[in-house]
């Protein structure tokens, strides 16, 4: 049975790509698209802007993951891993980045259509994704170990070696193509092969990139993509005995399950980038106009569907009213609508399921006694749109203050002084990001050092760069994406010690902190 496919005519689009996009939506195994071994099982994608059917996508099963692992292991043993030099891997990554740029308009249109992301935001994401792939292409031939000083009788050095087959699971949330590049880039640069699972809701750009991977010249089996559901494909990847490492981005709840499965299988290495409830700190010495616009950007970016959304705002009480005036104006200026329209700044939530989840949080906030200062309702009658929503009079025990909503919903509270501010900002299970607004850089940096979060922005929000690591504290996960730090997620250190003096001496001398220990080389003595 032939795998499913996608066809969409963008000729009526007001922006960018105006052609027809056509490609397979089957499983991508060993360099080609195929049907699942359980032929015929599919899932339907809908356009979140209007709820209409887009296409069907082949759904994989546990056996498909087995096949993907076999393909990846064969590629690692025969055509990747130590069989290729860093230069060769780098050239392929650079070629892939070039192809992504050459097909940028189509990739942007697909990202916006499938996820509901606005066209302008999607454009930035695709440019960013290509930049990440290019960045790691530059790293591929610069990964090295060290020589270590021991003594004259031993030559010691380390090697940074790939794990082999790694599993990667990404969400639908903020950046489907961005998350793919964050995962593929460092894994491929370090010589690993991949079994990749996109979200069942937003797989289109991943599958289109698969065609570019073939065009770039990657050997078959280096990258394998298994579409499907988290409780089937994701669970199979997490527990597979042939996968040595798994990387996951998504909710804290699912992250726990993945860690458990990894521990109970082969103790595979795990890195997880999870949820957030990130604070924006507005100090009385800041530029209130700029702070208000950045705070709006921090929650409206991708309609609040980003793990680092600035969903809690703390404003110094003596400037609270002035800030709220400017912040309300910034939120009212948000244009909600068709993500493919050039003036839209907020598109729909990704699915009806998630739309209902966000609306439930809004209703809960009202019931718990918070003041719905702005918005709080559905926008329009078609699609999964929600009005930009502000809550005030929110206490620390309210659900909307504690839990990740993942929508265009923000809570705003007052604080008296910096000491109280630090307590409020850190009063969360999460620790992914924070924003600080102040014209006193010493004050801002002092606060940044006290905030328990993996990324702190000062006088800006949600700005990322391939060279800068990103990841969380506390229940926002561990391990880092991006930058040199991400390479550590995909390598393991091997120490090699070579004897330079021949047969064993009568004693072996260990020197620790200038204290000598004489140890017999005879293991039975």
UniProtKB/TrEMBL annotation:
Pfam families: Aldedh. Residues 38-496 form the Aldehyde dehydrogenase domain. The active site is at 273. Gene3D superfamilies: Aldehyde Dehydrogenase, Chain A, domain 1 (3.40.605.10), Aldehyde Dehydrogenase, Chain A, domain 2 (3.40.309.10). The keyword Oxidoreductase applies. SUPFAM superfamilies: ALDH-like (SSF53720). Keywords: Oxidoreductase. InterPro entries: Ald_DH/histidinol_DH, Ald_DH_C, Ald_DH_CS_GLU, Ald_DH_N, Aldehyde_DH_dom. GO terms for molecular function: aldehyde dehydrogenase [NAD(P)+] activity. Belongs to the aldehyde dehydrogenase family. This is Aldehyde dehydrogenase domain-containing protein. It comes from Hydnum rufescens UP504. The lineage of its organism: Eukaryota, Fungi, Dikarya, Basidiomycota, Agaricomycotina.
């Amino acid at each position: 049975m032939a795998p499913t496919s996608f066809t969409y005519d963008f000729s009526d689009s007001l922006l960018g790509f105006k052609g027809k996009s056509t490609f397979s939506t089957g499983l991508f195994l060993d360099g080609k698209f195929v049907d699942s071994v359980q032929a015929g099982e599919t899932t339907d994608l809908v356009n979140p802007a209007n709820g209409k059917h887009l296409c069907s996508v082949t759904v994989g099963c546990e056996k498909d993951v087995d096949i993907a692992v076999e393909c990846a292991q064969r590629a690692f043993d025969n055509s990747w891993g130590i069989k290729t030099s860093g230069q060769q891997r780098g050239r392929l990554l650079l070629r892939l980045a070039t192809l992504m740029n050459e097909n940028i308009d189509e990739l942007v249109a697909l990202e916006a259509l499938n996820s509901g992301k606005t066209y302008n935001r999607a454009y930035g994401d695709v440019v960013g994704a290509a930049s990440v792939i290019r960045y790691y292409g530059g790293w591929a031939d610069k990964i090295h170990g060290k020589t270590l000083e021991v003594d004259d009788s031993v030559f010691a050095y380390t090697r940074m070696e790939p794990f082999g087959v790694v599993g990667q699971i990404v969400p639908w949330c903020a950046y489907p193509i961005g998350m793919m590049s964050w995962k593929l880039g460092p894994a491929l640069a370090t010589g690993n092969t991949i079994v990749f699972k996109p979200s069942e809701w937003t797989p289109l750009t991943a599958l289109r990139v698969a065609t570019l991977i073939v065009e770039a010249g990657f050997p078959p089996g280096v990258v394998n993509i298994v579409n499907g559901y988290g409780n089937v494909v994701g669970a199979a990847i997490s527990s597979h005995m042939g996968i040595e490492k798994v990387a996951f981005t998504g909710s804290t709840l699912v992250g726990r399950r993945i860690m458990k499965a990894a521990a109970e299988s082969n103790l595979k290495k795990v890195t997880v980038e999870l949820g957030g409830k990130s604070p924006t700190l507005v100090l009385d010495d800041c530029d209130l106009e700029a702070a208000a616009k950045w705070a709006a950007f921090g929650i409206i970016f991708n309609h609040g569907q980003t793990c680092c959304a600035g969903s809690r705002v703390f404003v110094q009480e003596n400037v609270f009213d002035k800030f709220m005036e400017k912040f309300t104006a910034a939120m009212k200026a948000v244009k909600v609508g068709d993500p493919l329209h050039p003036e839209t700044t907020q598109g729909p939530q990704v699915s009806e399921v998630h739309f209902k989840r966000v609306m439930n949080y809004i209703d809960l906030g009202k019931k718990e006694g918070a003041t719905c200062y702005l918005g709080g309702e559905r926008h329009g009658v078609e699609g999964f749109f929600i009005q930009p929503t502000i809550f005030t009079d929110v206490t620390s025990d309210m659900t909307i203050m504690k839990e990740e909503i993942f929508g265009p919903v923000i809570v705003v509270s007052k604080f008296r002084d910096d000491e109280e501010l630090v307590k409020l900002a850190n009063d969360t299970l999460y620790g992914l990001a924070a924003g600080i607004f102040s014209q006193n850089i010493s004050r801002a940096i002092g606060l940044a050092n006290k905030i328990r979060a993996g990324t702190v922005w000062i006088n800006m929000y949600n700005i990322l760069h391939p060279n800068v690591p990103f990841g969380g504290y506390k229940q926002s996960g561990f391990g880092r994406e991006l930058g040199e730090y991400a390479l550590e997620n995909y390598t393991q250190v091997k120490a090699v010690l070579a004897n330079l003096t021949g047969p064993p001496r009568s004693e072996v001398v260990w020197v620790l902190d200038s204290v000598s220990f004489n140890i017999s080389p005879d293991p039975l003595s």
